[in-house]
Design brief:
Layout lengths: L5 H18 L4 H20 L15 H7 L8 E18 L2 E7 L4 E7 H4 L1 H5 L9 E10 L5 E12 L15 H6 L1 H7 L1 H23 L3 E2 L5 E2 L11 E4 L4 E5 L4 H9 L4 E9 L11 E10 L3 H20 L3 E4 L2 E4 L5 E4 H9 L8 H10 L10 H12 L8 E4 L21 E6 L2 E8 L4 H14 L11 H8 L5 E7 H9 L18
Parallel strand pairs: 3-5, 6-10, 14-15
Antiparallel strand pairs: 1-2, 1-4, 2-3, 4-5, 7-9, 8-9, 10-11, 11-18, 12-13, 15-16, 16-17, 17-18
Length: 516
């Protein structure tokens, strides 16, 4: 039995470790040889009239549930309780007439114990045709070994899937970052922390939904393929619809369609979906990303500041049990209220530049002095925004609202009710990056049309300028109530809350250059 074979189990570990060390040196030729060996086993299995890819298995228990349910079992304690578990073989140690294995399912791992006595010679001998990576289903009794590991004493088993490629070396893990991103399925198999990351990401999205649903918001869907893109300053992806013979764009924002729903009578709407921007890739940018946008009639940007800090602090508390999150060695405190600072004040505080002391001509000299990269006209507001991006953003570590932006960079926003030249807009910054953007939404159709016409002129020199959208203007002419709206990047929120250094770590399949 298992208890009487622990010495053999321990002695085999050294042998297994040596095999793992050799595996890490495998060349493509080695891999091809192993694939051929597995194909040969597959053919032998078929020759036995056994289907190596059966249709189903009656899996009754998850590994993690069993681990929890039988946590009180003491060493060498046996039960008559029967388990039916299934999963991928991630460890396999053969020792004569007994074999130990570990299988991994969606919840965790459990050890299996096979013996010739329990299975019979023929069924036990079939184990030689199994490999790491194969899926099996087993039935057996629960016990705990002398070494203290919860184990299923297998009384019957079924091959569920014969794998043809060897898994990466489990002793060393899957370290190559490019392979981890490109072949995320292997990353998930080999690295338990990665699986945990994506479970937590899902929980974050679930709690965002729960927060908004409780406040009476309606979740909606808007078109991904659009005849005119808008709602942000970004370059779109383009495609062509053959039947209609027309150019289409992947959405860069949900904003203009969500506002149509406010016009149509829905007072609280939100959408969680993918947006697409044809831009660069770095640690906090991916061309395809997940965003939450919501719009609430009869509110302004002050109301949405309260909503945003309440939502993100609630999500942190619900998912992680605290509003204080460790991000790359710095404690980020999501507890409200967050600091509020105007963009002009932020430049003065963090860059020691008081832009109010510069006239329109003098401020242009700062473009050269700080080597600012600016597309379009060198207006005062554009230069102020560029100074902020270049000199301030990366210094904003704790959650903060940067409010009251220049009107030139905010074509969809109401002018500030008391500050000429500015609009009622805020951006949320945290850990040196923007995670949210919000407005008191512009609902004057004549002013909106004029703003978009100005943007249209700039498109000659700035391809990211907002295009004219006459259909949206027509919708606004029917009347849109005062509205506050916000968009928050879910990938970046997940990065921070899960403590991931790159946005690629929280996206299952990040955009990558095609592998030749």
């Amino acid at each position: 039995m298992a208890e009487n074979n622990q010495k053999k189990e321990r002695s085999n570990n050294n042998q297994q470790n040596n095999q793992h060390k050799e595996a890490v040196e495998q060349t493509p030729e080695d891999i091809n040889r192993l694939v051929l060996e597995r194909i040969k086993k597959l053919q032998e299995i078929r020759a036995l009239n056994i289907n190596p890819y059966p249709y189903k298995f009656d899996k009754k228990h998850d590994c993690a549930v069993l681990q929890q349910r039988y946590a009180v079992l003491t060493k060498e304690e046996r039960t008559q309780d029967q388990a039916a578990v299934a999963g991928r073989i991630v460890a396999l140690r053969r020792m004569g007439k007994i074999t130990f294995s570990h299988i991994l399912d969606g919840s965790g791992k459990i050890q299996l114990y096979f013996s010739e006595d329990a299975l019979g010679a023929e069924k036990y001998d079939f184990l030689k045709k199994l490999d790491m990576g194969d899926f099996i289903g087993v039935h057996g009794a629960i016990f705990r070994t002398k070494m203290g590991e919860l184990t299923v004493h297998v009384q019957d088993y079924t091959l569920l899937t014969k794998s043809l490629r060897p898994l990466p070396d489990k002793f060393h893990g899957l370290k190559d970052v490019d392979i981890r991103y490109r072949k995320r399925y292997l990353d998930l198999i080999m690295n338990p922390d990665v699986r945990k990351t994506f479970v937590q990401r899902s929980q974050i999205i679930k709690e965002i939904r729960h927060f908004l649903d409780k406040k009476g918001f309606l979740e909606v869907e808007t078109p991904t393929l659009q005849t005119i893109y808008g709602g942000a300053a970004a370059r779109p992806f383009t495609t062509h619809h053959n039947t209609l013979n027309m150019k289409l764009y992947l959405k860069i924002s949900d904003e203009l369609y969500l506002k149509r729903l406010i016009i149509g009578g829905f007072e609280k709407v939100y959408e969680i979906d993918k947006d697409f921007r044809n831009e660069g890739i770095d640690r906090n940018h991916n061309p395809e990303f997940t965003i939450i946008e919501w719009y609430e009639a009869y509110t302004d940007y002050n109301d949405q500041m309260k909503n945003a800090e309440q939502m993100l602090s609630t999500v942190a508390q619900k998912v992680f049990g605290t509003t204080k999150i460790d991000y790359q060695g710095t404690i980020i405190d999501f507890s409200p209220p967050w600091k509020r600072i105007t963009m002009i004040e932020a430049i003065k505080e963090y860059a020691d530049i008081d832009v109010d002391k510069y006239d329109d001509e003098e401020i242009k000299q700062l473009v050269t002095a700080y080597n600012l990269q600016i597309k379009g006209d060198l207006t005062r507001g554009v230069i102020i925004s560029a100074l902020f991006e270049e000199l301030v953003e990366d210094k904003l570590i704790q959650p903060i609202f940067v409010i009251d932006h220049p009107v030139e960079i905010s074509p969809l926003t109401k002018v500030h009710r008391s500050k000429p030249g500015l609009v009622e807009r805020f951006e949320i910054f945290c850990c040196g990056m923007e995670i949210g953007n919000a407005y008191s939404e512009l609902n004057d159709p004549i002013e909106q049309k004029n703003r978009l016409l100005e943007q249209e002129k700039n498109r000659v020199i700035d391809e990211e300028a907002h295009p004219m959208d006459n259909e949206f203007i027509e919708a606004m002419e029917y009347g849109m109530p005062p509205t506050g709206g916000i968009g928050i990047g879910i990938d970046r929120v997940a990065m921070i809350m899960i403590n991931s250094p790159s946005i690629r770590d929280v996206i299952f399949f990040p955009t990558m250059k095609h592998e030749e």
